[in-house]
Amino acid sequence: MPELPEVETLVQGLKKRIAGEKIREVEIRNQKNFSTDRKIIKKFIVDARVIDVRRYQKMAIIDLSTGWSLVIHLKMTGQLVFHGKGSKEQMAGGHPEKSYEHPLPHKHTRVIFSLSNGILYFNDLRKFGWVKVLPRQDRQTRSITLDEFLNSFQYSPDPLTKEWKLEDFTKNIQYRKVTIYQSIIDQKVASGVGNIYANEALFCARISPLRKSNALSKKEVKKLYECIKDVLKEGIKHGGTTFSDYRNVEGAMGQMYQNLKVYDREGEKCFRCPGVVKRTKINGRSTHYCPRCQK
DNA sequence: ATTTATGTTTACAG
DNA sequence: CCTGTAAACATAAA
Length: 295
Known about the structure:
- By secondary structure, the protein is of the alpha+beta class.
- The protein has helices at about 5-20, 40-45, 145-150, 165-175, 180-185, 195-205, 220-235, 255-260; strands at about 25-30, 50-55, 60-65, 70-75, 80-85, 90-95, 110-115, 120-125, 130-135, 280, 285-290.
- The strands form three sheets. Strands 1-7-8-5-6 form a five-stranded antiparallel β-sheet, with helices on one face.
- The chain starts with a helix and ends in a 6-residue tail after the last strand.
């Protein structure tokens, strides 16, 4: 699923379109994806205005005028599609599942938000994704606050913020006995990084994903730290590896996919050396690297 | 405490 | 038919 850059791209596009707009209706088609009590939704979501759309790690947050927020995690196969009224303003982000080409709603549509200027569809083939509703301040409800919720995951700070420090990253890397690949896809180490950007960051740092985490030198850890930030920023710059905005099928893909250096390039020539990109499995997960220049 | 194996769920390719 | 695979994690058990 969408990793940090994909969610960031999605959030930027969505903000442009729905900031200031009002939510008129919420239709839940699958309880598993959105299990909040209807009373809460009616009280704090329906008729609320969108103040801001932002990202935290891989989560999208929609702040509302009621003081409550929607938090959305797309997990592996979630996607958000916005159709503006008159269908001239369309955008989508998340999993590049083919069915986005079909008319909406369709069988993978799990939640429908009707807004004053269009409709926002939450589609999710595998139903791993979720939508939550939380107050930004404690409003004497039994609910925990948004910040408490976000902190409850105990993930590392967002790698694109100042709070994500080299010192903490180094500590995390140097005591783990798993491979460096496993270390950096662990959300406690580098939140927002998933399989694609982990592969890309290791290529950038010229480190093999098979190396033991605790065997990296200080210098390598620093290089990797910088590379993680760089590949995430690069991903955002190119609009992610999935579609961001679209009007037709051709324009659907984000530009980052063509920009990937190792991910999904098994058997192809390395961009940096005469080597060939290899695919292997680490703990059941597909990992790509160049054995010649990643040591 | 970390690490591993498994579960969540659907669709597609071979 | 079956097997393997997929962009993410949570959780229980070791």
